């Protein structure tokens, strides 16, 4: 029972922190105004790990590589701690652990996209003038706009979020299968 609770807490903490690191890279990629309260909170929560990495890993091509590498390092620590809690030898992660950590980061990114899209879709029905809507629209637009060009509007409903849910769920299944195949999780 203790190991189940510990795994749950490790999973929650590391998944949330990894998602925040990916959100930081995502916000910088879409050029979200740094004065935004959400952006300020994300930067404050992640500066301690990203700023030192940025000295070694500069951004390139509009991508904040330091935040992405930080998320990958967090995923590695997550895998080591999870394996230690279930009684495994963390050394058995190497060398495949590096690839599994990359798949973990990809899973976090896909889940983040899924949740952002879900929150935006629900808010668009419940309170379309909510203060979070411009932020959510700016973050999800790079994924939804291409889908909006190919999906019809049915009775005024935007079907792009539904299509994105399906695509992301399929990708999550692929990532889960790859992780299970490589590591047996």
Automatic annotation (TrEMBL):
Segments passing through the bilayer: 65-86, 98-126, 159-180
UniProt family annotation: Belongs to the YggT family.
**Source organism of the structure:** Pigmentiphaga aceris
Write down the InterPro entries for this protein, in alphabetical order: CCB3/YggT
What's the name of the protein?
YggT family protein
A Gene Ontology cellular component where this protein is annotated is: membrane
Q: Does the keyword Transmembrane apply?
A: yes
* Record bears the keyword Membrane: yes
Q: Which UniProt keywords apply?
A: Membrane, Transmembrane, Transmembrane helix
